[in-house]
Amino acid sequence: MPNATSYQFFINGRWRAGSDGITLPVTNPATEKVFGSVAAASASDLDEALASAERSRRAWSSRPAKERGEILVAAARILAT
């Protein structure tokens, strides 16, 4: 796979491979050529991702609505540039 891209998980603020090291090919459906790979999630990867998401949800929801709105507006400005 020359110039192939390998995609990892972003869990708890960091990029990482799946815990069992298994990857799956990513194929262009038009050409049927493999152009990358993606980490395959195990049950423990999913558990870790869900626990991290719940911690983030609690932290986000504890911020005042005005502050959350300001953060979203700032993010929208960044995405628009």
Low-confidence stretches: none
Distance between the termini: 33 Å
Q: Can you give the mean pLDDT?
A: 94
Helix coverage percent: 40-55%
Q: What does it look like?
A:
By secondary structure, the chain is α+β, with helices and mostly antiparallel strands. It contains two helices and five strands. The strands form two sheets. Strands 1-5-4 form a three-stranded mixed beta sheet, with no helix packed on it. It has a two-stranded antiparallel sheet with strand order 2-3. The longest helix is centred in the middle third of the chain and has 19 residues, at 43-61. It is flat and about 50 Å long. The two termini are 33 Å apart. Residues 15-80 form the Aldehyde dehydrogenase domain. Keywords: NAD, Oxidoreductase. GO terms for molecular function: oxidoreductase activity. Belongs to the aldehyde dehydrogenase family.
